[in-house]
Amino acid sequence: MDDLQAFGIEAGKGKYHEEAFYGLLLVYTVIFDRMSRYLDRFGLTPAKMNVLMVIKHQGGEQGLSQREIGRRLMVTPSNMTRLLDKLEREKLIERSGRLGDKRVKVVRVSSKGSQALDQAWPGYMQTMKSVTDTLSLPEQKTVSALLLKWFRALN
Amino acid sequence: MDDLQAFGIEAGKGKYHEEAFYGLLLVYTVIFDRMSRYLDRFGLTPAKMNVLMVIKHQGGEQGLSQREIGRRLMVTPSNMTRLLDKLEREKLIERSGRLGDKRVKVVRVSSKGSQALDQAWPGYMQTMKSVTDTLSLPEQKTVSALLLKWFRALN
DNA sequence: ACTAATTAGTTGACATGTCAACCAATTGGA
DNA sequence: TCCAATTGGTTGACATGTCAACTAATTAGT
Q: B75 lies in a domain?
């Protein structure tokens, strides 16, 4: 009925596996792209934004270890190292050793990073809202519940 | 209630925008990872698999231009060039000029590529099924319909 | 107390994705 | 007809992600 011009997927054919799988891929791609474009004007990316948000909102004053950040964002340690290298070069975060365990590097958001985050934040939330508001409220409710359930089931 | 240990998202808080947004991200990440691991044993990746599938199933004998493949997979021309460079080096596809328009390169799946695709295909579909079967059939039906609707609404 | 295993982080090699700048071929207008 | 705009593809520079191999520090077991 409704050729999506992508992957040859057509809706309403009863192939739920494929529809769910490719639907996820398509929506993810579009939304990720929109968010990237929004963040670009702040010199930020989704990955950097996620890191800053997790450290500031979940690490607070004490900060978080690199491993902990990576675990929460489902990002590998090696990726974390290089992402933080860049954020450090841009002076958005600070790294310091943890007393009592020389292996650990504790990461905190710098004041410059905090400012950048505050600047980007309202539009970030607004962008998130605008992409989800393309569905009605009951639909948003249903889809969000199912996605979180799906995620939990996948573990 | 149920801390997902990621992004600090908790289900059932009524913040549907965030739940839908991060739920999408989380599910996508896990599923993409599973599919990557499955395809790895065939020397394939999701990107390569998608290219081979689109050319074979939608291009058939005549093949498709690089642009056309990119359009269907929502991939930029530059990315397409390099992806096809690799697939050509691996002899899974063939490129030839189109008569009457020297700019266009027509891409076809080679017999080796066709074989690889046939080998990977059943398990590919099975993996797709196994990740979506973590939801009940009515849930799959609902989520796939909503995702496709969401994608269409985002255009 | 010493060795073995584990843990935190880094590095190299690679895959996939973007954009901007570019060339060559084709198409459209004045 | 000929010049301008468009179209198809490539390249360079970069971002983000993986894995495997590595170092250094800590913890556990005998």
A: yes
Q: Is residue B154 part of a domain?
A: no
Q: Is B136 part of a structural domain of the chain?
A: no
What is the rounded distance in angstroms from the CA atom of residue A21 to the CA atom of residue B32? 10
Q: In CATH, what number is assigned to the domain containing residue B29?
A: 1.10.10.10
Tokens linked to B147 = 């995702």
| Averaged pLDDT, B1-22 | 69
Residue A22: which domain range? 3-122
- CB of A105 within 8 A of CB of A95? yes
**A152–B2 C-beta distance less than 8 A:** yes
3-state helix, strand, coil in chain A (%, to 5): 65, 10, 25
Question: Residues A12-57: pLDDT tens digits?
Answer: 666 888 999 999 999 999 999 999 999 999 999 999 999 999 999 8
Task: Give residue B6's pLDDT.
Answer: 58
A27 to chain B: which residues are within 8 Å by CB?
Answer: 24, 147, 150-151, 154
Half-sphere exposure of B8 (CA within 13 A, CB side): 11
Q: Is B76 touching A (CB cutoff 8 A)?
A: no
CB of B99 lies under 7 Å from some atom of strand C: no
Q: Are strands A64-65 and B93-98 parallel, antiparallel or unpaired?
A: unpaired
Question: Residues with Cβ < 8 Å from A39, sequence gap 6 or more?
Answer: A45, A46, A48, A49, A120, A124
**Does B70 fall in a domain?**
yes
Domains held by chain A: number: 1
- CA–CA gap between residue B110 and residue A68 (Å, rounded): 46
Please indicate if any CB of chain B lies within 8 Å of the CB of A152.
yes
For strand D, is any atom closer than 7 Å to the CB of A53?
no
Which residues of chain A have a CB within 8 Å of the CB of B71?
5
